[in-house]
Amino acid sequence: MESLHYLLMKSHLMLSRKILAEAAKIGLTAGQPKVLDFLRVHEEADQKTIASYCEIEQATAGSILLRMEKAGLIVRRQHEGNRRSLFVSLTDKGKEAARQTELIFRQAEEPVAAVLTEEEQEMLKELLIKVNNAISDHTS
């Protein structure tokens, strides 16, 4: 049987390729789908929070957000009393792209849902959370 790290990487790469290919069809570039999905759920956040959640460097998040802003997908605003952080939220165009992205994610997950029961899917999620936490604890 293949090693755990190989299977985790292979699954991630195959899923990423599928998602990015579909996202490109609606004009999105790498990094943008996960930012859209985060903002769809959380509505508004600062760049640091987005970068942390999406597991990307702040500078990379800044580049992604700049492209998204130029494309009219997001707006960045200062909150009164907080001049240090810009808060990011979706525009109407961004909300539509986020809805399309959510569909792309669901379609990418369909082959998994077809071979795993709901119970197995929940167990897989729990195990992946455990794996992520273990990796995070050892890289901090």
Can you tell me about this structure?
The protein is 71% helix and 13% strand. It has 140 residues and is of the alpha+beta class. The protein has one domain (4-139): Winged helix-like DNA-binding domain superfamily/Winged helix DNA-binding domain (Arc Repressor Mutant, subunit A, Orthogonal Bundle). Strands 1-3-2 form a 3-stranded antiparallel beta sheet. Helix 2 packs across helix 5 and helix 3 packs across helix 4 (58-70). The longest helix is centred in the C-terminal third of the chain and has 24 residues, at 92-115. The chain is globular and about 55 Å long. The mean pLDDT is 93.
State which percent range the strand residues make up.
Answer: 5-15%
Shape: globular
Task: Return the structural class.
Answer: alpha+beta
Q: Counting H and I runs of at least 4 residues, what is the number of helices?
A: 6
CATH class: Mainly Alpha
- State the order of secondary-structure elements, H for helix, E for strand: HHEHHEEHH
Any idea how many domains? 1
Which quaternary structure do these chains form? single chain
Q: Which blocks of ≥5 consecutive residues have pLDDT under 50?
A: none
What is the end-to-end distance? 30 Å
Count all strands and give the number.
Answer: 3
The appropriate CATH architecture is: Orthogonal Bundle
**Biggest sheet character:** 3 strands, antiparallel
The name of the CATH topology is: Arc Repressor Mutant, subunit A
- The rounded Rg comes to 17 Å
| Helix content, binned percent | over 70%
Provide the residue-averaged pLDDT: 93
Identify the strand order in the major beta sheet. 1-3-2
Could you state the CATH homologous superfamily?
Winged helix-like DNA-binding domain superfamily/Winged helix DNA-binding domain
